[in-house]
Amino acid sequence: MKKENENNQPEFLFGKANYTFLLIGLAVIALGFILMSGGGSTNPEVWSEDIFSFRRIRLAPTTVLTGFAIVIYSIFKKDKK
């Protein structure tokens, strides 16, 4: 049988803090992908070194991995109940 509280509402799988960390992690992942974008050229005949910038090679992937770590933390975090 399902456990339900007195108001006849189903219980959530995670607590409020877990969902907060989950949303923060998803926002950090989205920021990392935004940092990765750009650097393309309108003319395929012209080479652009912008694709090898620090932002796209180091900062953006590190930001995405940090976001994944925050999401994993939000899943494994225990409530104080």
Question: Mind explaining what this structure looks like?
Answer:
The protein has helices at residues 16-36, 54-76. 54% of the residues lie in helices and 0% in strands. It contains two helices and no strands. The two termini are 21 Å apart.
Low-confidence stretches: none
Q: Determine Rg (CA atoms, Å).
A: 20 Å
What is the structural class? mainly alpha
Distance between the termini: 21 Å
Shape summary: elongated
Mean pLDDT level: 87
Order of helices and strands: HH
Q: Strand percentage, roughly?
A: under 5%
- DSSP summary, beta strand count: 0
Please work out how many helical segments DSSP would assign. 2
Largest β-sheet summary: none
Report helical residue fraction.
40-55%
Write a brief structural summary:
The protein is mostly helical and 81 residues long. The protein is built from two helices and no strands.
Give short descriptive properties of this protein:
mainly alpha, 81 residues, elongated
Topology:
Blueprint: H1 16-36, H2 54-76
